[in-house]
Amino acid sequence: MKRRIVCSIFMLQVVLLGSAYAVQVGVVNMERLIEAHPRTAQDRIILERYIQDFDEERDERLQALQTKSEEFERLREEAEDIGLTAEAARERRQRAQMKLEALRRGEASLRELAVQRQQELTSQEMRMRERVMRDIKRLLRDFAEEHSLDLILDGGEDPAGGYGAVIFAQDSFEMTDKVIDKLRESNETRSDS
């Protein structure tokens, strides 16, 4: 938190020193804006439904695995029955081995499904959050123009979704290309040495 504030203050000082006019700054709490966005609640319902569907599918598969496990145990115990002929015991051991292999394949499949669903859920959640962030940034850009703001900073506890503190800045404050040019010049100077 302190680091973000110090970085924001430093950036603000650079902007103020580098400009010939007064800078109009606005501060927002992006987390509150995201939470207040209408899509956030709708998206949460969709994600919860997705989780619920997976939980139901997982429970069904776990039940099927439990049944296979019980069948394996039954066949294994039957194969150890001393009253069976050698041929019957061998046949039951083979069937038990096949059940065990099917059980292992089912467990592996369930693990793969869980990883896949988690990846899908994370990806969907990111897409939903990015869509909300685009809407909010568009709104903030319009708001900044309406209120003659040059810069909008995120004043929340943590940057929203890993986004930086600067939400909007006039193009005149954008220095990325100049820094890249300096970086290239620096790299060329080192190469020549």
Structure description:
With 193 residues, this protein is mainly alpha-helical. It has one domain (2-192). Helix content is 75%, strand content 6%. The protein has five helices and three strands; from the N terminus they run αβαααββα. The chain has helices spanning 2-18, 30-36, 38-79, 86-146, 176-192, and strands at 25-28, 151-154, 166-169. The protein has a three-stranded mixed β-sheet with strand order 1-2-3. α3 runs antiparallel to α4. The mean pLDDT is 81.
Structural class call reads mainly alpha
User: What is the count of β-strands?
Assistant: 3
Radius of gyration: 30 Å
Tell me the helix content. Answer: over 70%
Q: How do the strands line up in the largest sheet?
A: 1-2-3
Report the mean per-residue pLDDT as an integer: 81
Uncertain runs: none
Total of helices: 5
Number of domains: 1
